[in-house]
């Protein structure tokens, strides 16, 4: 099967581009956009390990897709797709052709879908994780069901064997809802008949956030009240000092001093009461915040573990689908190549008739009688110096007598000028004039 030189060049460029893509995919990780900061610490060991695992899996998946695309380009880039027009859809060549293309396209689409699965975002909340676990674990009205401290899995074993995502989800359920669930989800989440679960962590976080929402406004109001009473006591104290300074000169201020003193005492008493209430509420709020931060850290740990486990399942499924896609592409490309008419006709031609002998290369014509031509000699050249002034930079009739190929248009050439005013033989160098045969 003959391959055009331009097709080889395009195929080489495509392979080179794919090679650069593979090198980029296998190189250093690109900087990702920083996620918005929240209450959950982003610099914990669990979060960093989950981020590193996600980048590693995604980088490997990109490398696998690039390698698959390079092999596909080598297979289909060497096949003449233009030959499809010469194919007659007959049994069985038509089936091989159409079936091969369908299989190849199915393999390529499967490869793209498989790699895109690795880039899908994992569960970003406990609610999503709880929903995923409920799809594989037995539950009742009270929550998850446990037998001897272990979760009861309801997923089909055959389906779990075929789909690595479900298998990894089952493994995650045994880790989070296993005997050491409190180490992952946090302490004091287990009840009398149920051990700690994602649902209980969600409920505890909701309770703590509700308590925080109740206490925070109370603390804010008490803080404002204490500040107000402190300012009032300060003002009353200054007023008492002024009144007592005027007592010697104005005995009538004695009554005003008594009234101000009573107000000062009442404000001081109220200030002590507000400070005591503020201290109590601040302690309660600090305890709630401490609990909330602890369970949020466990939430971060659980989501990091779930993210790595889910990504591992998607990667294993993508690897399996890529293997199937490679087989489909190989069989599809082979069937398509066998159905092309050039592949079968070349075999028939070579077996039916011997290879033709190449014809000898034609020899260039020799001209001995001379051919009429038109020449122009440029001014300022060596050839122009041999001609009269009126013969320069204008078309002159001439006869070319040669025994080789026709000279180039821009020379060099040797002609016999037949123009009346410029008769004579002249040799023109390259670029000194122009030459063309007269028609």
Automatic annotation (TrEMBL):
<feature type="transmembrane region" description="Helical">
    <location>
        <begin position="63"/>
        <end position="84"/>
    </location>
</feature>
<feature type="transmembrane region" description="Helical">
    <location>
        <begin position="96"/>
        <end position="118"/>
    </location>
</feature>
<feature type="transmembrane region" description="Helical">
    <location>
        <begin position="321"/>
        <end position="339"/>
    </location>
</feature>
<protein>
    <submittedName>
        <fullName>Uncharacterized protein</fullName>
    </submittedName>
</protein>
<keyword id="KW-1133">Transmembrane helix</keyword>
<keyword id="KW-0812">Transmembrane</keyword>
<keyword id="KW-0472">Membrane</keyword>
<feature type="region of interest" description="Disordered">
    <location>
        <begin position="346"/>
        <end position="366"/>
    </location>
</feature>
<feature type="compositionally biased region" description="Pro residues">
    <location>
        <begin position="355"/>
        <end position="365"/>
    </location>
</feature>
């Amino acid at each position: 099967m003959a391959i055009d030189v331009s097709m080889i060049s395009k195929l080489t460029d495509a392979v080179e581009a794919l090679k650069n893509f593979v090198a980029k995919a296998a190189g250093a990780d690109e900087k990702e956009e920083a996620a918005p900061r929240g209450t959950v610490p982003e610099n914990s060991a669990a979060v960093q390990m989950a981020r590193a695992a996600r980048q590693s899996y995604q980088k490997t998946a990109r490398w696998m897709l690039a390698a698959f695309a390079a092999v596909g380009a080598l297979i289909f880039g060497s096949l003449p797709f233009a030959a499809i027009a010469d194919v007659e859809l007959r049994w069985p060549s038509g089936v091989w052709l159409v079936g091969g293309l369908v299989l190849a396209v199915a393999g390529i689409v499967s490869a793209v879908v498989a790699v895109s699965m690795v880039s899908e975002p994992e569960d970003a909340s406990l609610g999503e994780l709880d929903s995923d676990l409920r799809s594989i674990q037995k539950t009742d009205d009270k929550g998850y069901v446990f037998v001897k401290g272990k979760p009861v899995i309801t997923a089909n074993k055959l389906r779990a064997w075929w789909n690595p995502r479900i298998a990894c989800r089952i493994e995650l359920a045994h880790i989070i809802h296993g005997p050491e669930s409190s180490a992952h989800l946090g302490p004091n989440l287990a009840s009398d008949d149920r051990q700690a679960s994602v649902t209980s962590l969600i409920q505890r976080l909701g309770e703590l956030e509700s308590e925080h929402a109740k206490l925070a406004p109370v603390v804010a109001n008490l803080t404002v009240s204490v500040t107000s009473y402190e300012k009032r006591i300060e003002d009353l104290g200054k007023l008492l000092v002024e009144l007592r300074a005027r007592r010697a000169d104005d005995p009538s201020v004695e009554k005003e001093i008594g009234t101000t003193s009573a107000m000062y005492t009442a404000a001081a008493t109220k200030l002590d009461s507000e400070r005591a209430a503020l201290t109590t509420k601040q302690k309660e709020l600090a305890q709630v915040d401490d609990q909330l931060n602890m369970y949020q850290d466990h939430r971060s740990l659980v989501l990091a573990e779930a993210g790595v486990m889910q990504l591992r399942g998607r990667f294993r499924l993508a690897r399996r689908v890529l293997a199937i896609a490679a087989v489909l592409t190989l069989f599809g490309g082979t069937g398509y190549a066998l159905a092309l008419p050039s592949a079968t006709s070349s075999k028939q031609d070579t077996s039916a008739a011997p290879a033709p002998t190449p014809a000898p290369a034609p020899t260039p014509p020799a001209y001995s009688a001379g051919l009429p031509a038109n020449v122009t000699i440029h001014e300022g050249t060596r050839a122009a110096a041999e001609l009269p002034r009126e013969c320069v930079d204008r078309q002159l009739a001439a006869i070319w007598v040669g025994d080789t190929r026709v000279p180039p248009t821009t020379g060099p050439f040797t002609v016999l000028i037949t123009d009346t005013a410029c008769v004579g033989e002249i040799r023109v160098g390259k670029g000194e004039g122009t030459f063309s045969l007269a028609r």
